[in-house]
Structure formats: C-alpha cells, structure tokens
Fold this sequence. Notes:
428 residues; Urease, subunit C, domain 1; 4-stranded parallel sheet; globular; 2 domains; 18 strands; alpha/beta; TIM Barrel
Amino acid sequence: MKKKYFLNANIVDPGNSVEEIGGLIISEDGKIEAIRKKVNENNIPSREKYVDLRGKYIFPGLVDMRVFVGEPGYEYKENFRTLSNAALSGGVTSVVTMPNTNPIIDNVSMVDFLKRRGRDKSKINIYPTASLTKNLEGNNMTEFGLLQKKGIIGFTDGIKTIQNTRVMSRIMNSAYDLNALIIQHAEDYYLAENGMMNDGVISTKLGLQGISDVAEKIIIERDLSLLEEFKCRYHISQISSSKSANLIQEKKNFLSFSCGVSINNLSLNENDIGDFRTFLKLSPPLRTEEDRLTLVEGLNKKIIDVIVSDHKPEDEEQKRLTFSKAATGSSGIETLLALSLELYHNGSVKLNTIIKALTSNPAKILKIDKGNLKIGNDADFCIVDINKPWIVKSSNLISKSKNTSIENKKLQGKVMNTFVNGEELYKL
C-alpha cells in the first residue's frame, strides 16, 4: 500500500480533543502516520500526490453498539457481507452484533463460527456479543469466562430483558468478578406484553395496545439498585422517555454506568406513526415529542453517552402486515450518521457532541482502540460532506432488508468515502 495524503479537511476527533482544519497521512501499513494542521502542502514531499478535501469533514470510523445481523439463521434478512457494505456507506467501521440469531450465540462453538464468518465475509470490524442467559430464556447464565476468552466483547439478551431479579444479581456479581460488560434492554415484560406503541392518546385513537414508559423505568431502577451493590460494567442499551432520562441523571451523580439511545428516538416521535405506519413499529417505541426533546437535552448534558442505529433488518413481507402482527425494528445503519447530523443542522446539538457519541464514547465503553484518529492506530475513518442534501429511498439502500423508518426523508450530510485500515472500501 502506498502512502495516502489528505489535505484541507475539517478534522473532528473528539477522542483526542481535535477540531481543526488540517490533513491526514496514512502510512504504507494502513496506520495513521500524521494528522492535524501540521499536515499541509508545505510539509509533504513535493512529488507526492494528495487529495484536496476542500473543507469536507474527516470523522473517525463510527462505532455502532447495537446491530442485528441475520447470520446465522436469518441470512435472508441480512448477512455479514451485506451488513458490511451497508455500514461502510454510512461511515460505520465497527459494529457490536447482538446474539439473537438461530442458533443463539450462547456457547463457545457458536462464537468460533461467528468470528470465522465475520472475518471471511465482512470488511469492517465485528465485535460479537453473547447472550446473558442460555437460549435467551432468562434463567441460566452463560459461561461468561469462557466466552470472554474467545473474544466476546459483552453480554446481552438483545431484544429481551432479564426479568428475574435474582438471576440479574448473579449476572452482575459474575460480571464484576470477570470485568465483563453487561448490556441491558430495559423493558418490563409484564407491563409491555402485547404492546405495540407508546401508551397514550395516539395509541388509544388507533386502537393499539400501548407500552407504558414505566416499563422501561422500572427495569432501570431495579438494575441501578443492584449496581450499587455489585458495581460491574453496566450499559443501558437504549432509553426512550423523560422518566428514564431524569432517573439516569440522578443516578449518574454517584454511580458509574453508561447509557445509549436509538437515533430513531432522537429524531422521531409517536406522531410519525400516522395511520398505522408499520415501518415505525420499534422497540423501544417512539414516544412523545416532549420525550424526544428530553433525550436530545440528555445528549447535550452527557446523561446519554452513545447513539446507536438499532439496525434490525426485517423483510418487507414481515413489515407490511397489520400493525399488531408486523415485525418490530428498522434498518438504520446506513442513515445513522446523516440522521444524527440533522440534530447539528437544526441547532439542537453541537457537532463534537454527536461525533463523540458515535465514535469515542462507544469505543471507551467497549474498551477497544477504535473511534479515534490517534497516531499509530488503524486508519479507520470516513470523509463526509456535511452539507450535501439527499433523500432516503429504500430502493437505494445497500442493506439486504429495506425496512427504513425514514423513507422519503430529506437529509443533509453524506458519506463520500470510508476507509478501514487505510484502504478505501466505499466511495460514493
């Protein structure tokens, strides 16, 4: 690989407190050799060709902490190859995959298989999670120690919640001993059972059973009470309501944990469901506009640490059913960055805060050296025209499943190039 030179870029690297106009040099082995304003036309060999970015932005490769891949068992929805291509088009270079596959990722042999497939078929960095409990049943813990040794980045039941408090206390105790990361999807089963959208006026009008925001809050309250005792690495996968945000703000004063939010809940609300738009049937559900604004403020106040795509591919047939029968989830990894930039363009959140929640913060939680542009690190980054307008069309999405929640939405900001280990793997 030849050295690559990029000049006249707006570099935003929150992990290293960099926000300035400068350049980037990639070494022959795909590492970051030099960066910042010292990299300019006067400081590179005169014979070398360079790319003049003319003010476009360089961000570290995005780290998406909540991604569902259909492999193994649901390859018709998504596989590692299609996921990888979709991720690259959105500037995502590292993903944390959920264990909700068939078979479930709950034993060492499945981890070996997953890592082989990820290595052979994917162009991006795959960080698999394993399930907290055997077969996602919420009863018996998986072998945390053995799974960690095989390269598991964390433990979660994905779309399911540990309902049994005794089991959760054992999990946290073991996680503390092994320094393992626990990722919890917060939703009380009995309060959310058969629910389809946010519980409120709109659900009543549509005749759909609602999911109360208390269902989320009650699990968070329980888990944080246990955390006071066991003090393990604990991450709330996604929150969706003001009640949860206010509780987390209070608890963060004396407890160490992290919290994420789906870009859907930052950008949309229950009104967007309109007349039974099943592509907006999500988990957690879209809540009120007041809830959405509180989540945006939570991002500003550092109550929320991470923005995720919650990329959950579903085939069109499963989404185009009646609302009660339609599958839950949306495809979002390709639009994660652009939809997040909407918060910057409308003045809600600073650019640095957004990029931090998409790069260095998730990397710090996961304890991986990604999501930054430090000299000597793998050159994983994306080049973005943050002002380029475009319209989301499902027919143009690369993901195998086209169940986007924002069809026909006008966005501003497009990934032009994505590099992994210094190699250009996506170009618009």
